[in-house]
Amino acid sequence: FSHTLGYTGLISDAEYKNLRDQNYWLNDFIGKSGIEQSYENYLRGVNGNKQVEVDSKGNAIKEIGIVEPEPGNIVELSIDAGLQRKIYEDFTKSSVGNKGAAVAMNPKTGEILALVSVPGFNNNLFAPGIKNEDYQKMLTDKNLPLFNRAIAGIYPPGSVIKPVGAAAVLQEGVVTKDTIIVDRGVIVIPNQFNPAITYNFVGWKRDGLGPMDVRSAISESSDIYFYIVSGGHPSSPIKGIGAEKLAEYYERFGMGKLTGIDIAGEKPARIATPTWKANYYTNDAIMAKWYLGDTYHISIGQGDMLATPLQVTAWTAAVANDGVLNKPRLLKQVLDQNRQTIFTPEAEVFINAGIDMEHMRVVQAGMRDNVTSEKGSGRSLQSLPITAAGKTGTSQFDGSDPKKTHAWYTAYAPYENPEIAITVLVEAGGEGHAAAVPIVKNALQWWAENRMGK
Fold this sequence. Notes:
Beta-lactamase, alpha+beta, single chain, 5-stranded antiparallel β-sheet, elongated, Penicillin-binding protein 2a (Domain 2)
């Protein structure tokens, strides 16, 4: 819980200068990160003090009055402690990676149910004032235990992006739910200046997946399908949606911007576009040019695309909730010491993708097929006592070694009436179905047994 709850520390000189008018003292402890920082104004109580009259030597001679201390308010979070512990335990037991993140949220409300970053740290070390040796140990740890991967870790999302791309091409009429594209495992692109030079763009299954419609392209994760519907191909009548329009839909689903979650440190990640690339490579005309291959890469969540686990969960929750999602938040309510509600956050819409319901149903069905189909990478979830829909992702992150991949799985359940959306990322974990799916499955099993319908 440490990344979420945060920690307190002795007020700094700069903090004291800004807060002394609010009755802070030089020896006060103040929220430094997480919920402790975000809701410091509610959590902080009132310091007690004794007012006395003193003589010329500073000796107390008369008590004038006493100001009794007052405890702070109660900040109630949406985090489900049982679910949080279950996910963290499964992560630490994983044999394929000891670094990663998981986020679970309620698709209907945007309330965060779990926010896990691995490895964690002991925030109790900060309470009395952390020893320098302990702090330096955390700072120099190569696994970065203080880093909140759930909201600040930015990674290539890989194929977990495909449901959003599918919604985009359906909405724009690039394809219908019945359009068939044959996945032969590779497409060949001729050089625009010298057709004798060709470039191969391969799918994850090199001998091909065969005929694909949009549902099967989601469930079986056809790279070839998404290459063509996004960028087109000289031999195909499908022109493709194009990089700019695809990026527009990515933004509609919350990519490339802050969700506004109520703890500090969130990163916006990145949508790669022709404009972004031109600006990034200002001094290199060749690198600044946008190629068809760039469009292919962003269609499968690779190239220069980056996302946080929170963002992936947000767009998955939006798919589950018919294209709409409230701003993710941790705060449920603030209570006084008599447990009377004194503040409840107002719901704010974060995603309103504007996708027709008929198209959303197709995308949802494709994610459901990922679980129910014998060819789906999430088929191990069939044994759950809860209906689920999902999408794997296996994203390359090291250009010098394409075998190094992050493992993703994002899902929601129950399929018919979603209560939970969850994303797991295992850093350098290999294949999504092998590393991330088991953690998601165990979390949904726990949810079905302990929370579903309750």
